[in-house]
Amino acid sequence: MSRLEAKKPPLFISKPLTRDAVSQSLSLLSGILKSSYGPAGRLKQLHNGVGGCVCTTSQSSALLGRLSLSQPVLRVLAASVRNHVSRFSDCGLFTAILCCGFIENFRSLNVAPFTVIKISKHLLSLCMDHLKSEACGCRVSVDFSSVETLVCLVRSILTSKPACMLNKTEVDHLTSLVLKAFIFTVPCHVETNAVLGKCVVIPVKGRRVMDSTVLPGLLIEAPEIQLGKPLAVRRTSSNVIKIALFSVSMSGDGSNHEEGTIAVHPGVSLEVSELNQLLNVGKQLVKDEVGLVVCQKVMHPSLKQYLKEHGVVAVDRAGLSLMEPLGRVTGSQPIASIHSLPPGCYGSLKDLCLESFASKHFLHLIPGDTVICSLILCNRSETAWDELKRVCETAEHMLQLTVKEPWALLGGGCTETHLASYIRHKSSSLPASTFQDLGCSQTQYQLVADGFCRSLESVARSLSHDGEEVLTDVVYGHCWLVPSGSPCVSRWSDLVSRCGCGVSGNTEDLSWSFLQGHSGTPVLQGCPKEPSVKVADLRTLDCFAAKCSGLQVALETANLILDLSYIIEDQN
Amino acid sequence: MAFRDANARRHIGLQQLSALASTGRTFLGPMKSHKFIVDEITKQSTLICSAVRLMESLDLTSAVGQLLNETIQAQNKEFKTGMSTLLFLVGAWSNAVVECLQQNVPVPAIVSVMSEGLNSCCERVQCLQIPIHDVKKELCSSRVRPQAFEGKTGQAGCDGLTNPWDLLCFQRDISATEEVIPINSCSHQGDDCNFNKLLVSPLAGFGSVASVVKAAGDKSSSVLSGSGVTASSCITRKLTHSRHFSTLGKSRFTSQPGNFQGHLSGPSADVCGCCGLGHLAVALSHGNQTSVKLLQSIAAYQQERAEFSGCSQVNISGIVTCCVLGLPESYSCVSPGFVKLVSPEQATVIKHFADKPLRVLLMDGDLTEGYRHLGFNRPTNVRTILEHPNPQGGRAEDVWVSRMLDILMSFEVNLVLVKGNVCKNFMERCIASRILVIGCVARDVLCAFGAATGAQAVTYLSQLNASSTGNGAWAELWKTSDGRAVDLGELLPARISAGGIPLLTAVLTTALPSKVQLLEDQFWTLLYRLHHALKDGKVFPGGGAVELLCLSHIQALAVQPGQPGHDRVVRELPSPWLAEYKSIVLQALASGWKRYLSVLLCNTAKASSELEAGASVDHHLQKAAACGSPSAYILEEFRRGGVLRSGSEPLPDQVTDLKVCDNVAAKTEAWRRALDLVLLVLQTDAEIITGPSRNQILNSPVSNEFIFL
């Protein structure tokens, strides 16, 4: 007997941002993210409290992916940031912290939300125009003909996450591997539209980072293949290895998960008929001179035996993640049925050999011309390996994005403080017509611009985790960190050595001052200058595309959240 | 989601680490105290004697506990040694780091100085490494070495590493471009090294095997004698026991199963006479004599099979263990082939086999009716319709058993080795038909039998064809070295072997059931130590030598101004500021090793208290510093019989007995893993508990530490 229950009415929450619970959660989340930011950021242990594995991380994707947030406002924020990270990999924490900063700073202004949104959009366009202009002082162009800037970009990403537990030599080793892997993914012969390849990460946990290496082509783990024996593989008359790629299960269980019941007579075995069908496929493969069969799922032992007896190498359980690169490497079409082999589904390989790393055996697929490579990634502990994998993937992605837009932004907080000083300068010299167009007063504009700059500066201030003082200079608008508890000196130049990105030193007097957020950050006399960049000095660089997108996403998300007037919660 | 700030003034995570690690203190050093772990609910207890087993027995639900366990397991998986060191240093360093925090040293300074300090130590201690080739010289300098040796086959393989003739490595790979087979490069062995270079030019094509053998035994131009070495001693060498130069089935082990009792004679009284690895094994054993004996047999056997040639490795995958309860430990030995406990019924089948060669079948799954390969999902929506009742009324399993038995009979299989379980009913029927079926056989064992008999492992009996069975295996009941058959009631050890099988079983005997796991762990630890020592190609002098050098190195660094010149550190932190903390942090790093040495001295009863031990360590440090070159001092002390000897201790007569060596990679990796864990926890400022355990946390006593998002 069923019982009907009346539906509960939905819960209306008006002006969600004014609620205490919301602002508390928001500031807690912002605190978690800020404390994780940068190379000295603190780590978070994420676990389920009942013995699940422990994830130690300071990465936005791992943090936001695992947090279960109950406040809708926070969920909107997390969703935007994760969407940004899925497209750009990098600058997730930047986006999230900046977004929290915008919300906090704009909320406290006594300006109507729609005016704030209008003005902040204008400010964003000023930023974007500046970032894209030639005169931009926080942008360097990336020269792909030399390795230095690229090394700096990769190194910045590798060192930004302390949970990877890398020392200096290990960072150097991985930097060169990531760059090598990137070079493998660039096609040699470019036709009309070049497509970059892919670097597949092969996990080898529990080993030294220095054991990591990169190989062109693909590695498939093949635990059943014994080393020591030479690999006997059939080749076609043109001396290539034909490969068939199956995405369907070949385990012989029929995989018949449709509804309804099948009735069979005694003596009829579906298993046997299924196996016969598999063996027919096997015969066809042998007839077609196939030398290697890879199955995404499980292969029936009898089929494997049959193939092996005919000199065909068979590998099963390749896994979904390898299917796409397998198709690209070999040019084969995944076969989704064991009843028909479509014409032209086979691919080819130049060679096949065995490799072994740390007691794991792999089949190394060597194609003729490839943009796919395998990064065998080692790290001592599970949690550090997970972090390192995400970091290496971010670095690969960042390099690919940089090919499209060959610039990089100065890191170490310098871009943020530079942009803030640029906006402060620019907003004080706007023509009156701009305010008219925006429908706001100059005071309103100044208020919002100040909030905008403070939000940017708060990101730079998040780099300080041990009570370091954050300074900025009046000439370039860069960001400087001074250790806490430093002795009192008459001149800042005795304490500061290099700015966050490493471009400027303490040789000239740059009139430093505290970057204190609320109380008067000095307005520059003129536009922040463009320093002369020596590549050798560069310490930290950020991905241009990712940071630009992060800036936009942060502002748009903040505006969306500021504009929320009701939350309607279904209580059923 | 709950959130806890881990950094509330005193770092909770580091305190947890230190508390957990303090339980493993007595496992440090060669004199380990055993521990009983008692389950409060079931009152069952386990005897343990290693950090790994300790971690397994503790209830580690906290995040830090899990990370610690993960770290120890990772070290165990790769090295099987160094876990106690790791556990101890985790504790010592987390204490030291907490002290740094209390002195207001910023976290980045601790992280960078400590990790650079450890790096610097790892580089510094490289000068103490002893190459494997020199170990023998180093360890038994007092021994009078035989000036010549006999070329008896019985002694083949007994001097492996240092005798050139034994290390004939031959690559049959035609594509290999090297024409020369390196024999041995230990020319520095001087007195007993009959050094020669054997040049073997592969003849065009395949037919070179015979001629190579001839070349080796012939005083022809292809044998170039080294200086002052008689080439004739090489001539008597017969290469019948080399895998590459004898046809299968012709060697002693393979052709006469009946005569050969399946025992390797233990090492002779003089360990030096056994093999080059003998000393290394003794030095790495840290006093465990039973395992040393087994290891020396394994080394001798594998050498004899030319497994060692050129590459000098212990083949770990070719070794299994079998524990036999009820015999004294002195009966432990190494048997070629596969020893496993079988039921009396199976034993009857074996007796019936006598010396008959057996046809063998290998199965890599279970041998039951319901078994299907992994990944096979049984369809749930299939129904069988019976049109009329089955007159026989036979159960499906009986039908299956008969069918399978028919298959075995038709292929005349006598021996079935199964990776998984075997259906009881089927086992009984097989015994009745005099077919020996053995279940729960490890994959490596199946591989070894596959390689030796030509059998191909199958998953289902229906896959069986002529090419998947193998020939030439035999089975017998295992006998002790004095020839006694063992009849201990329920289960009997049986030995199954095949011609030329590269498989050895270490039979571990003990009268105490609670010691079984201990013995097994100890055996594997030592085996892996030897394996890694050969893989590294070098060892560290043991007994605290390396730690003492680290200590003296760090203390020197701590007082050195402006050093170490790590540009990364210097670039990120202004140097005057860093210098302020450098010394504190380096002292913290050093305190880990100092406590290690002190506890080591206490555990070995060389000091009565940690205070006294600390004073003794300081004394040695001063002496090392006074000597000018600490590393030279330490090496010299090691040669004289041990690094941390107290002044009153007389010099031991038999220096060889006391020298102890450690693995290089295992030790430095244990340090690195320990420090990584401490620094990882140090840099963690919050614990975030995800998932639906909100109420559980709210009800717990620490609920006020949590904030909910």
UniProtKB/TrEMBL annotation, chain A:
GO terms for cellular component: centrosome; cytosol; kinociliary basal body; motile cilium; nucleus. It is found in: Cytoplasm, Cytoskeleton, Microtubule organizing center, Centrosome; Cytoplasm, Cytosol; Nucleus. Keywords: ATP-binding, Chaperone, Cytoplasm, Cytoskeleton, Nucleotide-binding, Nucleus. GO terms for biological process: artery smooth muscle contraction; brain morphogenesis; cartilage development; cerebral cortex development; chaperone-mediated protein complex assembly; detection of mechanical stimulus involved in sensory perception of sound; face development; fat cell differentiation. It comes from the Eukaryota. InterPro entries: Cpn60/GroEL/TCP-1 (IPR002423), GroEL-like_apical_dom_sf (IPR027409), GROEL-like_equatorial_sf (IPR027413), MKKS (IPR028790), TCP-1-like_intermed_sf (IPR027410). GO terms for molecular function: ATP binding; RNA polymerase II-specific DNA-binding transcription factor binding; unfolded protein binding. Belongs to the TCP-1 chaperonin family. Component of a complex composed at least of MKKS, BBS10, BBS12, TCP1, CCT2, CCT3, CCT4, CCT5 and CCT8. Interacts with STUB1. Interacts with BBS2 (via coiled coil domain). Interacts with CCDC28B. Interacts with BBS12. Interacts with SMARCC1, a component of the SWI/SNF complexes; the interaction takes place predominantly in the cytoplasm and may modulate SMARCC1 location. Interacts with DLEC1. Probable molecular chaperone that assists the folding of proteins upon ATP hydrolysis. Plays a role in the assembly of BBSome, a complex involved in ciliogenesis regulating transports vesicles to the cilia. May play a role in protein processing in limb, cardiac and reproductive system development. May play a role in cytokinesis. This is Molecular chaperone MKKS. The gene is MKKS.
UniProtKB/TrEMBL annotation, chain B:
One of its GO terms (cellular component) is cilium. Coiled coil: none annotated. One of its GO terms (biological process) is fat cell differentiation. It comes from the Eukaryota. This is Bardet-Biedl syndrome 12. The gene is BBS12.
